[in-house]
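Page 37, continued from 36.
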């Protein structure tokens, strides 16, 4: 086994880290307070190739491997988790599935603008009544000429307000309930309407909206993969997307650890640095150990994916562990900082608020456990799992 990153991976890690430290982290507190994504940042991310890291050069991307992309998400999230999720959804949940499942025409039409950051991607699966049970979605795609007319509502859609490319899941077969009657479509931003911007506990620099689709007409050229196979597209997409969210959690935890370590080495109480007390040493030792463990799980899952090997179980394990670890250890970072940790003078409280969502979106921890349990018990689908 080789645990070293390659020269190319180290180079892209340094690029994302330097950019995060210079252009993102100094502003993250202000973006959090303003509840807004800094749109001007998109141009800078695009100029550096960070909106298409793992997309082949022939499709306008940087041509790096999936692990490099995961490392970029970790570094961006270390600077600001809202920027991390914006890039993660855009890349893993929209650009990659079009590349994977699209026809040649769809790939050459939709992928280059996404990879170059000219269009920002949104993934519209969740609905008010279809969260963890994604297969019960009700947005309807009824036959209309040679194509479909789509009507419905979507909820909590990251990047949905950017008006770019929307990967949207709708039921093409009203007589088949559950996952089988679902198809995936590529919509333009002007085919959906934003009805509400969500107010959240954290991740305030990312945009999360509710959408309605009011009779959007789509032709066959907008159907991604086969009719009725949309749920497979969604699940395969989330298999990779979850590795990205795990990387986001890892980056948040790393940022919290960095602040806690620095503070412990400076802060003096009872005549010495608090880092000289065993209580604080053990907290930092546990943080460093758990962050390392999460990083190994995340990088392994990313490596499996880029090798083209099964990664459903490993991605779910990485997300489950990294997100719960991030919630635990961002809380510990606040504890190390004591009263200062609870104030907005330090970013520890933001890391804590931002970490929580990683246990919820792209599949809750409970869903990750379900995915892992089905895999280790050999229960491959809902029917089998229910006996
Ligand atoms: N890859 C490919 N196909 C898969 C698959 C996978 N990993 N997992 C399941 N499938 C296929 C199955 O083979 C089956 O197809 P066939 O019938 O043709 O064999 C079909 O999908 C249905 O599978 P299940 O019976 O397992 O479906 P289920 O209804 O039991 O659901 C679930 C499984 C894991 C619970 C799924 O509903 C799920 O992942 N729920 C969580 C939803 C989620 O993660 N939402 C995230 C929203 S996006 C987001 O959060 C983005 C953001 O803002 C950051």
């Amino acid at each position: 086994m080789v645990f070293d990153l390659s020269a190319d991976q180290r180079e892209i890690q340094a690029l994302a880290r330097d950019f995060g430290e210079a252009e993102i982290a100094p502003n993250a507190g202000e973006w959090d307070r303003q509840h807004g994504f800094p749109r001007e940042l998109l141009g800078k991310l695009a100029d550096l190739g960070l909106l298409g890291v793992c997309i082949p050069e022939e499709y306008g991307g940087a041509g790096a491997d999936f692990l490099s992309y995961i490392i970029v998400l970790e570094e961006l999230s270390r600077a600001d988790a809202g920027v991390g999720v914006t890039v993660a959804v855009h890349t893993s949940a929209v650009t990659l599935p079009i590349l994977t499942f699209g026809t040649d025409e769809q790939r050459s039409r939709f992928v280059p603008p996404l990879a170059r950051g000219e269009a920002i991607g949104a993934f519209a699966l969740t609905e008010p009544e279809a969260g963890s049970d994604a297969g019960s979605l009700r947005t309807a795609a009824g036959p209309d000429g040679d194509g479909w007319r789509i009507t419905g509502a979507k909820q909590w859609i990251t990047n949905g307000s950017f008006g770019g490319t929307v990967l949207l899941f709708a039921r093409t077969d009203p007589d088949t309930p559950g996952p089988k009657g679902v198809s995936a479509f590529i919509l333009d931003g002007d085919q959906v309407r934003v009805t509400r911007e969500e107010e959240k506990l954290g991740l305030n620099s990312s945009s999360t909206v509710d959408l309605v689709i009011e009779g959007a007409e789509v032709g066959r050229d907008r159907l991604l993969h086969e009719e009725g196979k949309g749920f497979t597209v969604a699940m395969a997409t989330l298999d990779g997307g979850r590795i990205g969210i795990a990387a986001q959690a890892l980056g948040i935890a790393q940022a919290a650890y960095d602040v806690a370590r620095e503070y412990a080495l400076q802060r003096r109480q009872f005549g010495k640095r608090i880092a000289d007390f065993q209580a604080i040493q053990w907290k930092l030792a546990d943080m460093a150990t758990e962050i390392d463990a999460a990083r190994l799980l995340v990088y392994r899952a990313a490596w499996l994916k880029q090798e083209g090997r099964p990664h459903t179980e490993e991605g779910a394990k990485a997300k489950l562990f990294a997100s719960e670890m991030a919630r635990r250890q961002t809380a510990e970072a606040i504890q190390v900082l004591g009263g200062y940790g609870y104030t907005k003078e330090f970013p520890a409280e933001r890391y804590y608020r931002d970490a929580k969502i990683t246990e919820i979106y792209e599949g809750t921890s409970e869903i990750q456990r379900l995915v892992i349990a089905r895999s280790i018990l050999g229960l491959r689908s809902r029917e089998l799992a229910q006996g």
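The pocket of acetoacetyl-coenzyme A is lined by residues 85, 89, 93, 123, 125-126, 132-135, 158, 179-180, 231-232, 235-236, 238-239, 312, 361-363, 367, 370-371, 381-382 (CB under 6 Å). Flag for discussion at group meeting. Residues 230-266 form the longest helix (37 residues).
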